[in-house]
Q: What sequence folds into this?
């Protein structure tokens, strides 16, 4: 036979990954394939946003205090509808929903929980900037027949799968089940995700820093001094770094995974001059992105410790977030330790 004429598509990758684990029941495979289906539907809606008059606001606010856009609602409904009847989840959490989302009584519960941000970066949609979906999958740990918050609020070091979909010039799904990080690009003509980035590895050290420097005055001293440091000229150490900031976490993290460097959303002292508060949410933004970073050979930190080791205290908990090339994240941590105390 000639070389595999269809290459490796996502379905084949998921199937082969399952076959590599004899104990696998196939539940996780079903979940990942269903995520891909939902992603295709959202991709079509996002790509037609300007045409299908879905731009604009619903006039409501979510728990984050952000104005909810119609595409947020559409994307949220698509993922909930894709998951709720599957029989593989016991409970869900969404950035758009204040409380945990139970599986409706008419459907069976399964052995996993899922937390997701259905359309991250949506404030950029009107400017046609890339947006994305982020997902995090844990095993069910509660004893009852139905799931509860404890199945969602697990540390990222227990994740079984995580990934994102970036709806950009092309739609890409990037995910890991703990055995490398792999990227699949949607071929809209056949409606399949085809493998385009096998075993993504983040460079050990990069030359790009990515953050909203408008918040510089609210950052803690160690973070400010680190950013000052990477902007100083020192050719031997590859400084100054270039700055790239899209303001859509999925797009900024996708670039960081591929090109290296450091993405930062530091905690700021706006609300409380004694305690830096992050903006990005732990369960469905920072932990899944940290899982991908580490499985791609990079690192992800709160500035003082591993993001994946943070024990969640609430569904929409926020943490400071620094992620990307290991050398760059470790250097950031050294500045925080030096100027703010370990
Ligand atoms: P800022 C988008 O609203 C988001 O949640 C992330 O996608 C992004 O990284 C961050 O907020 C951007 O925040 O304060 O720079 O606009």
A:
């Amino acid at each position: 036979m000639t070389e595999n004429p269809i290459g490796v598509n996502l379905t084949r990758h998921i199937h082969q990954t399952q076959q590599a684990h004899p104990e696998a029941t196939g539940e996780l495979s079903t979940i990942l394939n269903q995520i891909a289906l939902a992603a295709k539907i959202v991709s079509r809606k996002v790509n037609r946003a300007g045409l299908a008059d879905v731009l604009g606001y619903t006039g409501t606010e979510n728990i984050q205090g952000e104005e909810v856009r119609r595409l947020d609602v559409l994307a949220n409904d698509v993922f909930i509808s894709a998951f709720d009847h599957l029989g593989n989840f016991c409970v869900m959490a969404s950035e758009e929903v204040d409380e945990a989302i139970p599986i409706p009584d008419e459907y069976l519960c399964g052995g996993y929980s899922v937390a997701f941000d259905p359309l991250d970066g949506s404030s950029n949609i009107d400017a046609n900037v890339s947006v994305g979906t982020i997902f995090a999958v844990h095993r069910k740990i509660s004893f009852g027949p139905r799931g509860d918050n404890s199945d969602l609020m697990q540390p990222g070091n227990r994740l079984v799968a995580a990934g994102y979909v970036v709806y950009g010039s092309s739609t890409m799904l990037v995910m890991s089940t703990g055995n490398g990080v792999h990227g699949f690009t949607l071929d809209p003509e056949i409606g399949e995700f085809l493998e385009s980035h096998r075993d993504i590895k983040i460079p050990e050290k990069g030359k790009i820093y990515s953050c909203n420097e408008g918040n510089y005055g609210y950052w803690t001293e160690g973070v400010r001094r680190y950013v000052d440091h990477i902007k100083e000229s020192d050719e031997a150490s590859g400084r100054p770094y270039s700055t790239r900031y899209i303001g859509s976490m999925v797009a900024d993290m996708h670039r960081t995974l591929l090109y290296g460097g450091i993405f930062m959303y530091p905690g700021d002292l706006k609300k409380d001059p004694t305690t830096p508060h992050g903006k990005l949410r732990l369960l469905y933004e920072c932990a899944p992105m940290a899982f991908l970073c580490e499985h791609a050979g990079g690192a992800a930190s709160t500035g003082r410790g591993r993001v994946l080791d943070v024990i969640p205290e609430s569904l929409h908990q926020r943490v400071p977030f620094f992620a990307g090339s290991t050398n760059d994240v470790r250097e950031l941590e050294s500045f925080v330790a030096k100027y703010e105390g370990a």
In short: The domain at 10-197 is CATH 3.30.540.10 (Fructose-1,6-Bisphosphatase; Chain A, domain 1). The chain has two domains: 10-197, 208-340.
